[in-house]
Amino acid sequence: MSTASVPLPNWINYALLPLINLTLAFLVSGLVVWIIGENPWEALKLMLQGALGRGEGIGFTLFYATNFIFTGLSVAVAYHAGLFNIGSEGQAYVGGLGAALAALALDHYVPWYVTMPFAIIGAALFGAAWALIPALLQAKRGSHIVITTIMFNFIGAALMVYLLVNVFIVPGKMAPETRTFLEGGQLPKLDWLIAMFGGKLGPAPFNVSFLIALVMCVVVWVLIWRTKLGFEMRTMGLSRSAADYAGISYTKIVVITMLISGGLAGMMALNPVLGASARLQVEFVGGAGFVGIAVSLMGRNHPLGIVIAAILFGVLYQGGAELSFDMPNITRDMIVVIQGLVILFAGALEFMCRPMIVRAYQTFVKG
Amino acid sequence: MDSFDILISILGSTIRLSIPLIFTALAGLFSERAGIFDIGLEGKMLAAAFAAACTAHLTGSAWAGLAAGIGISLFFSLIHGFASITNRGNQIISGVALNFVAAGLTVVLGQAWFGQGGRTPQVTADGRFAPIILPGADAMRDVPFIGPIYANVISGNNILTYLAFLAVPISWWVLYRTRFGLRLRAVGENPGAVDTAGISVTYLRYRAVLVAGFLCGFAGTYLAIAQSAAFIKDMSAGKGFIALAALIFAKWKPGLPALRLP
Asked: What is the rounded CA–CA span in Å between residue A186 and residue B66?
């Protein structure tokens, strides 16, 4: 009998299988570390120490995790509707423009909590706008959304460099970036949260965006599993023909889903732009959009899973940075390898181990 | 420089820059005609470029570099096949994953082995594919009109360039005039029918994916040791995606899909 149709209990589907896939990805990563002549065990220890050892490390870890929660949610929302949004990177980059415009316009006049909602709306609007054209092309013309969103990443990068170099640059300065926002355009740090657990945040830019990210997790959960729109999105993701037959408009769902997805990606810009550097810089996204893919797949496209996966990738980012000081052979590009392996094992090879598990389950649990 | 000279030099560089696109677009053609979407062309090309540059640097032989490039590209293809054919995973996710693995691994290994920030050391002249001067190129040079075209555009390219242009009619012949090609196109359009006819869909698709890997190996090798003399971080720079676009632009048929102004 084929093992594909055997139902498995939830704890295997949602905990054991992802854990096995993750372990495989990390085993292969360890193999790579071993090949370049370093001790994987030692590397892991240094990494965990760097990421979770001190309050500052934890602050950085959670700062990175905030980025990945936003981009992970962005990828997950699209994924539920059967769309693979690989353009979170570009959408976040352009979203930064919206956030920065709000901050530049308001920071002279009002405190941060007034600027914040405008910045959120601006970031989401600009991010969504950057997803609109690929969405329309997919919905109306059937252009492959993966290719159009990749291309829009390139276009977005070029556009932002143009704007920063020619429009937003501070006259007389060399660096292509906007002026530094005043207090009114900066999101405050969450040092009290770290202090509650007895740590010291230090210079780590862990800020209010983290809370916004958590709120968005709840919003996305409600949207996907508790609204009519979410139901339609999931229906379309499972079977487009069934959705068509049920009278769900393909065009409408594709466009709305991509707008939400782009908006979530755009909101990621709040964290680095308003929360950390207080200015819009070139390449501030730094690959977080692509990490979002791995985070979303690893978290099984569920907000709770995404938070856990995002924190894990935060550990990798922060720990990886510390690690490259101690082991110069392991550059930060190692993270890209790990990211690729996680996408491979948790995404493409998702069901590789399932037949084995099913057999074991039938023998031991039911047998 | 008059406009004719400019045209000649544009033609020459068009050809030089289009070679990786031709190879990868043909690779995508074989893969997608068999029903396996391959967005990992980029990663395969990058991995092949790295392997070719390393091997050519260590052995000093361009052909060894080519073999290594093809080898690593075939290996990536097998992973893609294992994920998307054997395990029926999402083909796009698998391709994207391989792109990341290639982008990261080439830099990590390059830094660990050579310590030049992800670059590989310069390959010597023997380790590169040198330009081939076709017979009579120098004698023809002064003939008006045809002379410069023959001497500067047709002659003076390396062997991989000629192979690329040869690969186009060969691909057409394989796809449209052989049993393998017919079955390959059929498996892309209706795998159920092929299965009913008693032909293994799995085996056929694996072969298609391997052909794609083989061609991507040439593209990567060309980038690393024919066009330049070393591997540079992210040197494929989106060419794999552009090749996919070229493939779509050419409506999934061979016939010089990638030859356009860079």
From this structure: 53
* Degrees, nearest 5: CA angle A136-A85-A187: 105
- Which structure tokens are listed for A102? 């709000």
DSSP tag of B251: T
The tally of CA atoms less than 13 A away on the side-chain side of residue A8 is 21
CA separation (Å) from B99 to A250, B36, B80?
A: 30, 16, 11
Is B232 an interface residue toward A (CB < 8 Å)? no
Contact check, Cβ <8 Å, A348/B83: yes
Q: Tens digits of per-residue pLDDT, A24-76?
A: 888 998 898 888 888 888 888 888 888 888 888 888 999 999 999 999 999 99
Domain ranges of chain B: 15-130+147-249
Domain boundaries defined on chain A: 70-286
- The structure tokens 């968005």 sit at A216
Question: What are the C-alpha distances in Å from A53 to residues A41, A58, B1, B257?
Answer: 17, 7, 65, 54
The span from the CA of B57 to the CA of B65, in Å, is 8
Q: Output DSSP code: residue A185.
A: G
Cα distance between the two ends of chain A: 16
Contact A357, A4 (CB under 8 A): no
B125 by Cβ neighbours in 10 Å (0-12 / 13-18 / 19+) ranks as: exposed
- Put simply, the answer to whether A341 touches B96 (Cβ < 8 Å) is no
What are the C-alpha distances in Å from A136 to residues A76, A80, A253, B221? Answer: 19, 18, 11, 38
**Chain A residues in contact with B39 (beta carbon < 8 A):** 146-147
In terms of CA atoms, which chain B residue is nearest residue A86? B96
Cβ–Cβ contact B116 with A under 8 A: no
Give tens-digit pLDDT for B107-140. 888 888 887 777 888 887 777 877 777 777 777 7
The CA-atom distances, in angstroms, between B220 and each of A94, B44, B68, B237 are: 32, 8, 10, 12
* Cβ atoms of B51 and B71 closer than 8 Å: yes
ipTM > 0.90 (yes/no): no
Contacts of B107 in chain A (CB under 8 A): 331, 333, 336
Task: Provide the whole-model pTM.
Answer: 0.84
Tokens of A131: 């997803």
Coil vs helix vs strand at A229: helix
Q: Which residue in A189, A186, A187, A169 sits closest to A178, CA to CA?
A: A169
CB B39 within 8 A of CB B94: no
